[in-house]
Structures are given as structure tokens and as C-alpha cells.
Amino acid sequence: MTEAIRQSLRDSKAARWGALGIISITMFAGYYLTDVMSPLKPMLESEFGWSSTTYGIFTSAYGWFNVFLLMLIFGGIILDRMGARFTGLMSSGIMVVGAAIKFWAISNPTLITDTTFGIHTQVFYASIGFAIFAIGVEIAGITVSKIIVKWFKGYEMAFAMGMQMAVARLGTMLALAAPVPLAMYFSSVHTVVENGQLIEKMSPSISAPIAFALVLLVIGFIAFFIYMSMDKKLELSETDPNAEAVKPMSMNELWSSIFSDLRQIIGNKGFWLIAILCVLFYSSVFPFIKYAADLMVNKYGLSQSTAGMIPSLLPLGTLFLTPIFGGIYDKKGKGATIMIIGAVLILLVHTIFSLPILNYWYVAVVLTIVLGIALSLVPSAMWPSVPKIIPENQLGTAFSLIFWIQNWGLMGVPLLIGYVLDKSNPEVVIAKAAGTEIPLYDYTNPMMIFAGLGALAIFVGFLLKREDRIKGYGLQLPNIQK
Ligand SMILES: NCCCC[C@H](NC(=O)[C@@H](N)CCCCN)C(=O)O
């Protein structure tokens, strides 16, 4: 046994970090497409006539198929049964298809005037594309998590997860900073009649940043092909030539193994606490990112072209901090405590954002940086804690269930925020309908919702710490085995 472990490919530092580098490219591209529309919200409103509710519908599409069609859960089951190579290739292919549909919808001006199922046809197809893409990016996320456990267990696992998340956040950062400059760079000039006069108008190309995403996703798809050969080598290096071949399962055995896995996972209280903490935490960060640029325009008086800059600082801090906190967890432990501190920061930041005072851009910068620290703390400890609660052969299913629960929040919260924003600002809705000058949105209520999620996350964090004490999961212990 010891001999077999010593000869495994994952014992080579270069091999495991090389594998991580390759799969990180796929996730980088996925995260870029996920948030590419955020800084474009004001443009979508002015160019295509979207409202905040429309934008909320589009954004919530991320969870439609994952949540209602249980795509994520199927993805986890497929991952545990078919393996990382098949699932990774399938999911990165789905990402490309979804992004292509979204690109087609956004770049097709003939869709602007019609409606489908009661919504703007353009929004409908863009949302369908985004929903398909989201199946891919979420299943790719769980696949990558399982791949990291496979290569790094007993080694620097939290650090590796932190590094992968850092590269993915680079994608988020690019998505917040690049789309407006890209849309402006590819803008076109056309002549319109206004007040009886012919005037030249600049129209930004909203589809250009999405075309860029499509190119990145194709590169990510190709990168996964390269990873597949490494995965095969890893498996060969760990296969015992004298071991008997595994007997294929009958259909009945397959179903009963799936149900037995599901039963064991959902009967585990630690799993539920991690999943609830996950949905509360992520719902107070990722949906916030979707509105952050708009918040900067409306609360802090920034121009549309610079508004994405401050939110892009959020992932910037996480690039360095997530691996650092992951490294601390690997060496010193204290996973539950790290998650609680992150949740406290969330509450603090969103409470200050909700106050109708301190409307200075530099306050927004400081708050965004602190939010970035929270976005480093919680994930750096949360994800490497899952393998301490769930056995490796059920990890794909467990990650997929956690992501599934999280997706309820990623889908519901942006929709809720868009709705609350329109409801709390009827004068904006009226002005848009009348075509008069649009007043600023008041973001107090949406930000209070985000703060409330942070408060609940702190509570659940303490429950998790208590459960860890009772069950001895080892969340407060280091990951590296000496
Ligand atoms: N190895 C940990 C993987 C989880 C990383 C986590 N991603 C998610 O939670 C996704 N379900 C949602 C991604 C949304 C992308 N903006 C993360 O912290 O990114």
C-alpha cells in the first residue's frame, strides 16, 4: 500500500500543480462569462430598455435548470459514477453551447421588440443561454473540486483550492473591469432623428464582451482535453496491476447505490450546516456583485464607465488572500472559526453599505476590500472542510447537493433584489416608462437584505462549530498530515 502511494503521480509536486493550472483555465473562462453582464446593467437599460426586474430575471436564470431540473444533482451523480474526465469534458462543452446562445441573443437586434412567454424575447433567449451555461459551469465547479481532492489529499489541499478559486476570481475581476471598455471600443456610430434633427449617436457593442467570453470558453474546453491525459496517467500510476477488475453494476445495484449515497449525505447534520452556511454566504456576495456597479453609480455617484472599477477590487484581494487563508487552514486548522470571521465581515460591510450616509467613493473602496477579505476567508475554509465530513466516493454527489442548495440563493436573491429595487424606487420605474430623466435608485433596502443574510450566516457558523465539537469532524484541525 505504502509502495503504491509513493509511486502515484500525485506525489510529484510539478504534476499536481500542473494539473491544477490546466483545470483552472477552464474555470477562469467560466467565471468571466458568469459576471460579464454586471457592469453592463446600465447599458442594457439604456440601449435595450431592460428594467432592474428584467435584469434580475436574466441574472436568476443562472439557477433555472440547475435548481428546477436538478441538473446539478445529476451532474454530481454522473461525476461519482462516470469520473472526472467524462464529466469535465461534458460540462465545459455545455458552457460553450450556453454562452453561444447568450451571445446570439444579445447581438441580435431583431429580438428587442418581441416578447416570448411574457418576457422580452432577447431577455428570454439570453436567459436560456445563461441557464444552459450555468449547468456547465456549476458541474465543472464540482468536477474541479473533486479533481483537487484527488490530486491533493494529504497535501496542501486548502491552498490548492484557494489557488484555483483565485484564478477563477481573476475571471470575475476581468468581468467587472473589461466589459464596458470593450463595449465602448467596438461601439458603432449611427444617425437618428431627435426633435426633428438628424444626430449622430454612438451605440456601444454590448455583445463584444460576450464574444470575448466565448473565445475564452473554447480555450477552456481545449485545456480540459489536455487535463484528461494527465488524469489518465494519474489513474494508471495508482492502479494496482494485481487488483481484480471491478465488476460492472446492474441497473438495480446502480440505483440503490445512488439512493444509499443520497440518504447518507442528507442524513448528515454537518453536511446541512455547511450547505446552509454556503447558500447564506454566497447569496450575500455573488448576487451583490451583479448589482455592485449599479450601486456605485446610484449611491456613490460614479460614472457608468468607471463604476465597474471599484467592484473589481473585490476579487482582486481574494487572488492573494484565498490561497493564504487556505494555507493557514492547511497548517493551523481553525476552519470553523475562519468561516465565522468571514460571515461577521459580510454583516459589517453590507450594514455600512445600507446606511444612507458616507456616500464617498473611498468608503466604497474600503468596504469592497473588506468584502474581498470575507470572500477569501469563508471559501478557503468551507470547501476543504467538505471532504472532512463526507467520504471521497460520495464527494461529487455531496458537492453537487451543496451547489444545488446554493443555487437557490444565487437564483432567488438577484431576482428579489431587482424586485425590491423597483418596488422601493417607484419614481425610477415611472420615469423610465415616461421616457423622462431617470432619478437615482435608493439601495438601502437591497443592502439590508444582504446584511440580513450575513447575520444568519454567523449564526449557522456557530452551529457548525458546535457540531464539529460534538462529531469530531476535525474542522478545527490542520489538513496537512505530518
Ligand atoms: N473547490 C471549491 C469550488 C467552489 C468555489 C465557489 N464556487 C461556487 O460556489 C459556485 N457554485 C458558484 C460560482 C458562481 C461564480 N460567480 C467559489 O467560491 O467561487
Automatic annotation (TrEMBL):
A GO molecular-function descriptor: transmembrane transporter activity
Ranges that cross the membrane: 14-34, 54-79, 86-104, 124-145, 166-186, 206-227, 270-289, 309-329, 336-355, 361-383, 395-417, 447-464
Domain Major facilitator superfamily (MFS) profile: from-to ranges: 19-469
Superkingdom assignment: Bacteria
Pfam families referenced in this protein's UniProt entry, alphabetically: MFS_1
Membrane topology listed for this record: Multi-pass membrane protein
Subcellular localization: Lysosome membrane
InterPro entries referenced in this protein's UniProt entry, alphabetically: MFS (IPR011701), MFS_dom (IPR020846), MFS_trans_sf (IPR036259), MFSD1 (IPR052187)
Catalytic activity: L-aspartyl-L-lysine(out) = L-aspartyl-L-lysine(in); L-alpha-aminoacyl-L-arginine(out) = L-alpha-aminoacyl-L-arginine(in); L-lysyl-L-lysine(out) = L-lysyl-L-lysine(in); L-arginyl-L-alpha-amino acid(out) = L-arginyl-L-alpha-amino acid(in)
Record carries keyword Coiled coil: no
Keywords, in A-Z order: Lysosome, Membrane, Transmembrane, Transmembrane helix, Transport
Subunit structure: Homodimer. Interacts with lysosomal protein GLMP (via lumenal domain); the interaction starts while both proteins are still in the endoplasmic reticulum and is required for stabilization of MFSD1 in lysosomes but has no direct effect on its targeting to lysosomes or transporter activity.
Function per UniProt: Lysosomal dipeptide uniporter that selectively exports lysine, arginine or histidine-containing dipeptides with a net positive charge from the lysosome lumen into the cytosol. Could play a role in a specific type of protein O-glycosylation indirectly regulating macrophages migration and tissue invasion. Also essential for liver homeostasis.
Family: Belongs to the major facilitator superfamily.
Protein name: Lysosomal dipeptide transporter MFSD1
UniProt organism field: Labilibaculum antarcticum
Source lineage: Bacteria, Pseudomonadati, Bacteroidota, Bacteroidia, Marinilabiliales
